[in-house]
Amino acid sequence: MERREFLGAVTGGLLATPLTAIAQQAGKVYRIGVLTNVRPTTPEVSRNLEAFRQGLRELIRLDRGSEHYHRIPIAEGNLERLPSLAAELVNLKPDIIVAITNAGARAAQEATRTIPIVMAYVFDPVGAGLVPSLARPGGNLTGLTFVVSPEIAGKQLEFLKEAVAIISRVAVFVNPTNQASTLWKETHAAAQALGLRLQPVKANSPNDLEGAFATMRREHANAVLILPLPLTYAQARRIAELAAKGQLPTVYPFKEGAEVGGLMAYGARAPDMFRRAAGYVDKILKGAKPADLPIEQPTKFELVINLKTAKALGLTIPPSLLARADEVIQ
After folding, report:
1. pLDDT digits (tens, 9 = 90+) for 28-71
2. Residue 258 φ/ψ, nearest 5 degrees
3. At CA 181, angle to CA 249 and CA 209, rounded to 5?
4. Residue 47 and residue 139 share a domain
């Protein structure tokens, strides 16, 4: 399958009320590159990008007709191509690059040390070695991050246990090449407190998913905790399909997982993070330096429950849990 990255051109001359730095360069076209390893045309990703565009429109007061796109085709799920795509994007000379996921941020950072990079949905950039600290990122990269702490993972397991009281062994996807996979170790205390045992299952690519679920069945897992890996985000729907086939309830760290068929999701509100990323773009276009802009963490979290999936799994979600959900998918 083919998927696309794109470069958006934002026309400063069409602003209804020019802002400080933009007013000094009437008619300038600001080119904003977006680099991601997830298909941007899927409904869930498209919604996040629209939240980003809406944030730009609100801050810079853009007309909808002022956006134009240059598209770069890439192969679905092929993270190895991101460095060459980042280099291609840099050659287009954007004013700012918006990086989605750790793989996108790393590829963009390796491709340029001068063009500002704004992270929109990146996990633990300090742990990933992308920046020295959240307060003082230095270099040309800043933006939004989410750090899935043991407390957040513990909450995910708590909701899962409340929904499916009989679970005892929870599988967790891990990828040795991705620092997010170390999170499964940090969730042991929360899992033990709930009487649960975590089962790490390796998966490096989409081709590993069938085997990973076979391993879960062989080792008698009866639920799945999804970590925020590039693979689990890009393959959220496929994972939900395989989980349904194996009658395994799942909890995702992002809403899209519940929307594509997972049992539930608990985590940061992705559209909110993308909308806030537009604020970084606005500040940089006004003259701020990425090195001086502290990296922000999520402020809003949401619990989403998919009742259609619950019914297919033969589960009855307790009313007390439904009452705490921010959204219930019928």
Report:
1. 677 888 887 766 666 667 788 888 888 888 887 655 555 665 55
2. -70, -35
3. 50
4. yes
Report the DSSP pairing between strands 223-225 and 169-174: parallel
Share above pLDDT 90 across residues of the chain, in percent, rounded to a whole number: 44
Q: Are residues 94 and 179 in the same domain?
A: no
Q: Is 39 helix (H, G, I), strand (E, B) or coil?
A: coil
Residue 18 confidence (pLDDT): 26
Tell me 146's DSSP state.
Answer: E
Closest CA to 279 of 290, 291, 268, 267: 290
Residue 126 makes CB contacts below 8 A (sequence gap 6+) with 132, 133, 134
Record the pTM.
Answer: 0.80
Q: How many domains are there within the chain?
A: 2
Same-domain pairing of 188 and 318: yes
Range of the domain at 177: 150-268+302-329
Please report, to the nearest 10 degrees, the dihedral formed by the alpha carbons of residues 173, 41, 327, 64 taken in order.
140
DSSP code, position 189: H
Q: Edge-to-edge, what's the strand order for the sheet holding 223-225? A: 197-202, 169-174, 223-225, 250-252, 264-268, 301-306, 327-329
Q: Are residues 190 and 85 in the same domain?
A: no
* Residue of higher predicted confidence among 215 and 178: 215
- Tokens encoding 81: 């191509």
For residue 244, the domain's CATH number is 3.40.50.2300
